[in-house]
Amino acid sequence: MHYDLSPIGEYMADENHIHDVVSGLLDSPGGVIVQEIGEYFKAKMKIILAIFIIAVITGFSVTKSIIKWLIDPNRLPSDVNIIVTSPIEFILLQLQIAVSFGLLIIVIFLLLEGVRNGVKNPAVKQRFKELNLKPPKLSITFILTLFSIIGLGFAGLLYSWEFLTPMILDYLTNDAQKAGLTTEWRLSGYVGFITNLALACMVGFQAPVVTLLVLRLGVATRQQISQYRRHIWFTAFVLGAFLSPPDPLSLFMVAMPVVILFEIAMLLEKLISSSEA
């Protein structure tokens, strides 16, 4: 009796091919970077966990003052009461704020570690070379970009806190009161609403930095971006829908500054290109 062993041979050949492909990926600069990131987390996990726990404990100690500041009557529309609907709602909100603060500290720590180790890492340099990109250096442009990110984020926070949030809260409160409803807001819902609005504005206000980086790094040309201007506007409103609270006014007031800042960045890049020509 004879057996056809060709399927087994084909399977082994495919398996060897897959093994070669995986080995090639692991030996590539990108694969080396992934492996080194994994090794870094194994070596630094205790330090990262300790930083997170310390940040959470520190954040939790000031959450009561933060919440008290957020629900100050001077910041609320008239005839609005903030309530808690369960015995543990307040403590859970404190814990949520503290954990968010801990995660933020960890992200900042990892970014700084990534920059510190990535600048002198051969695999990272090789990967940048493969992508025809130059690694960022501590230059005037880099410093200006960093300060622009921080400044625009702060501007977005001010826009949200001083203009957008009071206007939307007044609008929503008056709308409910005209319908004969009493305005009592859950503490967690109120804090979540204004926090999401602030984060949406801080992210949206980065539109000029993103646009200029895309243009200056050669990822896309001004003509290409101009061709998709309507799509970019539409994307701004879609992102506004995801980032802002679920009401049409918030969506419009979050998305419009993004569109305006995008157009300002396009005009600024045009002026810079003209001066360099």
Largest sheet: spatial strand order: 1-2
Please tally the helical runs, counting DSSP H or I stretches of 4 or more residues: 10
Q: Report Rg.
A: 26 Å
Spatial shape: flat
Taking pLDDT < 50 over at least 5 consecutive residues as the criterion, the unreliable ranges are: none
Which structural class do the helices and strands define? mainly alpha
Mean pLDDT: 80
**Count of extended strands:** 2
Word description of this protein:
The protein has 277 residues and is mostly helical. The chain has a domain of 142 residues. Helices cover 79% and strands 3% of the residues. The protein contains ten helices and two strands. It has a two-stranded parallel ribbon with strand order 1-2. The radius of gyration is 26 Å and the shape is flat. The termini are far apart. The model has no long low-confidence stretch (mean pLDDT 80).
